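Our platform keeps sequence and structure together, in a single record for each protein. Such a record has a labelled line for the sequence and another for the backbone structure tokens. This encoding replaces a full spatial description with a residue-level series of whole-number codes. Below, we set out a record of this kind in full and without editing:
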Amino acid sequence: MGFLKEFKEFAVKGNVVDLAVAVIIGGAFGKIVASFVKDIVMPPIGVLLGGVEFTDLAIVLKETSIGPAGEELGPVLLTYGIFIQNVVDFVIIALVIFIAVKGINNMKKKEAAAPTPPPPALSKSEVLLEEIRDLLKK
């Protein structure tokens, strides 16, 4: 029974839930960035480079290959264009995360630097009570 109690405490801790939410949002964010790079960034770059589609860039290592049953499998390719696409995805994701973390850190600095408001002024009766307290202490 102790194991289940410990597991429950572990599973419902804020850090575990926060991590799960972060992983889910990160996966969705990764899809958005991958689509942004593939559908928005790379086509203009391909046009600038003479109509090249990066995912189609490859080096043929062997024209045809034969499978275990003797069937022809097609060419063996080194698809470096897909690698370039993934590198661009990574750079954009890293840049966005850097900007987000920098913004969050700046907001934290502003909160820490915000001056605390001065305490409200004491009324005449509060001042008199403090004087009486001080006199009684003597």
